[in-house]
Amino acid sequence: MPYRAPEADILFALKRAAGLDRAMKAGAFAELGDGLLEAVIGEAGKFATDRIAPLLRVGDRAHTPIVDGRVTMPAGWTETYRAWAEAGWNALSGPEAFGGQDLPTLLSVATFEMWNSGSMAFAIGPTLTIGAVEALFKHGSDALKATYLAKLVSGEWMGTMNLTEPQAGSDLAALKARAERAGDGTYRIFGQKIFITYGDHEMTDNIVHLVLARLPDAPAGTRGISLFVVPKYLVNPDGSLGARNDVVCAGIESKLGINGSPTCTMVYGDGGGAIGWLVGEENKGLACMFTMMNNARLAVGIQGVAVAEAATQHALAYAAERRQARAPGWTGEGMSPIALHPDVRRMLATSKALTAAARAICYSCAMAIDMSRRSEGSEAERWAQRAGIVTPLAKAFSTDVGIDVANLGIQVFGGMGFIEESGAPQFLRDARIAAIYEGTNGIQAIDLVTRKLPLAQGAAVAALIAEWRAAAAATADLPGFGETAQRLAAAIDDLAATVAWFAAPGRDPAEALAGATPFLRLMSLVAGGAWLAGGAAEASTEGDADAGAQVALVRFFAENLLAETAALRDRVVAGAPSTLAAAAFLDA
Amino acid sequence: MPYRAPEADILFALKRAAGLDRAMKAGAFAELGDGLLEAVIGEAGKFATDRIAPLLRVGDRAHTPIVDGRVTMPAGWTETYRAWAEAGWNALSGPEAFGGQDLPTLLSVATFEMWNSGSMAFAIGPTLTIGAVEALFKHGSDALKATYLAKLVSGEWMGTMNLTEPQAGSDLAALKARAERAGDGTYRIFGQKIFITYGDHEMTDNIVHLVLARLPDAPAGTRGISLFVVPKYLVNPDGSLGARNDVVCAGIESKLGINGSPTCTMVYGDGGGAIGWLVGEENKGLACMFTMMNNARLAVGIQGVAVAEAATQHALAYAAERRQARAPGWTGEGMSPIALHPDVRRMLATSKALTAAARAICYSCAMAIDMSRRSEGSEAERWAQRAGIVTPLAKAFSTDVGIDVANLGIQVFGGMGFIEESGAPQFLRDARIAAIYEGTNGIQAIDLVTRKLPLAQGAAVAALIAEWRAAAAATADLPGFGETAQRLAAAIDDLAATVAWFAAPGRDPAEALAGATPFLRLMSLVAGGAWLAGGAAEASTEGDADAGAQVALVRFFAENLLAETAALRDRVVAGAPSTLAAAAFLDA
């Protein structure tokens, strides 16, 4: 039951749900015309299916042990990575001046969905490299760009992000890693970083670490953090590799999942100081890192979609083969496929619908990012605000969906679902990290409520709500949508009511924080449902080949999953007092 | 952060939520008086905390490899098991005639909660032994009882259940294992059984397998299945062990969790036939097995409670220690404990409240089982029907809670939650199986909807609903309950509406099956909420020391978790058509 890239669903999400077709008709994204979009999706699908997916179980079994001081990658990993980079996939979104193709985020996100469905442990490596490209391109000096960017864009070298320390996870203000000025324009870096994904390996000849550290005279807190480039091997002026830098991998974590990716403890400066170069300005490192992290959040969201897609396909294939008992209406010989049992059908339909909703959100987020870069002035600002609002939904909702769908997939498998050989448990184990890293999902919800809802005095969210109301209304007179219009309208009312609750003057911050996570889910259900509904309405009107399937999915989503918004609204507006009073039974 | 038996919560659930205090005042359960109840809970808590909990990580790391043909148990496992059995714990619920203490199911369930919180992989072994005791005591011949029961009751030998075959999981009609009459009153058993928990090991000198198989002239389907005792070693007339029987462990599964328990593929009869003895009548094996399975379902439900409790304690302890950022209102030095952040508090409170609700359901189920055995005539029948209704709730809701709470626990741990060393992932990995075995949770929901709702023409469910309405009303005028009375009343209305929907004449069976799982959760939220509320009202009125904590927990449950019932009702009564039409987007 191998993964197959779901090209039709991806193209629906791009063109219809995220609005690429409308945007192209309006003259945008001309570079994707003449079949390029479909060709790229098709080729990426082939590579993901044929080359990456076969690594999925291999990586999980092998882990990445340190043998003779070297991090050992699973069999086939290095060859596949090099073939992938040589085919140009790493360069898809990179800047043209450094060899990239500068194609839209939309396309990058769609291809990364497929790489991650093939193997999340594989795809997380390039995800970090591309984050490093973004940070260096935006904040690095010309000299740094000249030294590193072309190799990172091509994938000849990989990049890492070094933020976390034992005492500094969600709260980067607590960072202790030190940087000292060497007097020659370079710096010496000292300290320990943990949870560094792809922190060490020999898949590439060099690794470019981006490291947050404090200068001796830095202010306390987050305004005293600087960002440095610290290469594993120093780079000579001619671009060749020089001496080993003073950075070592001191250990590999034993994790629940994504075992094909080395999660390293990195030690800087134990031999006198790792040589680093400043990115951007001193003490302004967090701003540089946030550029990178914002896009990384969408990249993690797509991991949730990707694992959900792979797990759904895996469960669907098993349910079509596995026979037990006789489903209602079954007239065939003997036992029926379990896919026909209504309770299994419920699990499969829920999996497929949640995956589609999360995909619609992630792709719509990518659209907003692309449009903000392709617009000017207030239009660009409007799209940037939208990207800001949708990013926490994309990250948190999608990764929750990844966990929930992987969990449902195990249930569809029954007893075999608990056996590693079936492959079902790995999806849950892999998916679990995505709700944690790049800012836990709770942090995403807090970001949404405290920083994103107030954007443009609430006008940014109001514009989205208006768009979603229009999408709901568009389904009202079309066949096959059932109660979609009414149910979406009711869910949007729930959303509007909670938005008003958060905006009420004098709202207690603690109460707002207590409701943040339920609110994020509420808004995501509306966003996913509305974008899918608008897309399906358009597909239906335009007579797309898969319109019937998309309409049936939207109807299922509306009539089975949207009613949850009322409970979420209720938890937001009424649940905080008893939550904040929970010490009475938690500290007992 | 080791597990500590939650004696106060367990006693609250027993005495107040499940009504043991009221029953004792009415004269029942006299054997638990004079402090015996508290003494047993206290001693069991000590053993679980001091002896079993230290095995948790050991078992997970060691697995149970076959070395030189022998299943190797993790270090300390055998010694601890023997000490546990020698202390009399295995005999707690066993029949007095065979050395048991014949104490109530209520007490057995409470102690098994603690054994499972210590290590589910450890406790699942005795769980199966006790199931074997029940089946043999109820259906075995006097000769079989004389040979096996005393040793199984004491725990000197362990028992197993052999149902599943590769093609026969949820559908036992597909069983192929064969039994042949040997002519001397014994049988020869042939066939392969999979997923046999504690199928082989050397923790005890003998293992007593209960095996389902078909006689040559048996009718097809489930009415042609017989149950046999097949001991690992034959038992001589004097009780000493004789020859090895023809049954071998052909392999150990590599699983997601409960790795300390050997999950075996058992092969019967490859050397000419395993010698077996019939339990009950020929072709009536399934009825015997169902006796055992019904109680096993409650025993699995308590595994969900147990892992949820352990994971909640684990997360609470970490959240009290781990410091990041400053929570609203924090006036201490530096960073605050994350437990004070409202979003973390929400996760902890949700974990604790769901665990308490699942516990209340499981203990109330045990109460119904005990009362059905201690009553006569229609009263006994009434309690038996109640046990029948509550058993699927106890099994499915509690095991879903086990997964959800373990998942929340990982999230509370943040990045450390993904690292195996933290212990957080193991709870999710262990808990995952409980939603699958002993009848998947989907099967439980189908059992509830198709067989339990119609009991006594609906009067059995109606009586429960009336009891829950009274519990809701009892909180109305007491301080501290907030909106509990109104919210419970609304949830009970949702329950009553869905019960009426299922009972409507001409209800399409496929639509009913599509709504079974949401309905089970709806009914469980009401049951757990109402039993907790009634218990807290009683605790409050009686002035219990922990009444304040229990009332605060009920209020949190009512104001944060109960609103979900409206969405579940909606999914039941309106979601089926689009679910049954899902082929349009699933088979695409």
Automatic annotation (TrEMBL), chains A, B:
Domain Acyl-CoA dehydrogenase/oxidase C-terminal: start-end pairs: 283-448
Range of residues in the leader sequence: none
UniProt key word Oxidoreductase: yes
Cofactor: FAD
Enzyme class: oxidoreductase
Boundaries of every Acyl-CoA dehydrogenase/oxidase N-terminal domain copy: 42-156
Reaction equations catalysed: 3-(methylsulfanyl)propanoyl-CoA + oxidized [electron-transfer flavoprotein] + H(+) = 3-(methylsulfanyl)acryloyl-CoA + reduced [electron-transfer flavoprotein]
EC number, UniProt record: 1.3.99.41
Domain (Acetyl-CoA dehydrogenase-like C-terminal): residue spans on this chain: 470-581
Cited InterPro entries: Acyl-CoA_dh-like_C_dom, Acyl-CoA_Oxase/DH_mid-dom, Acyl-CoA_Oxase/DH_mid-dom_sf, AcylCo_DH-like_C, AcylCo_DH/oxidase_C, AcylCoA_DH/ox_N, AcylCoA_DH/ox_N_sf, AcylCoA_DH/oxidase_NM_dom_sf
Swiss-Prot/TrEMBL keywords: FAD, Flavoprotein, Oxidoreductase
GO molecular function term, any single one: oxidoreductase activity, acting on the CH-CH group of donors
Domain of life: Bacteria
Domain Acyl-CoA oxidase/dehydrogenase middle: 161-268
Family per similarity comment: Belongs to the acyl-CoA dehydrogenase family.
Protein name: 3-methylmercaptopropionyl-CoA dehydrogenase
Native organism: Siculibacillus lacustris
Lineage: Bacteria, Pseudomonadati, Pseudomonadota, Alphaproteobacteria, Hyphomicrobiales
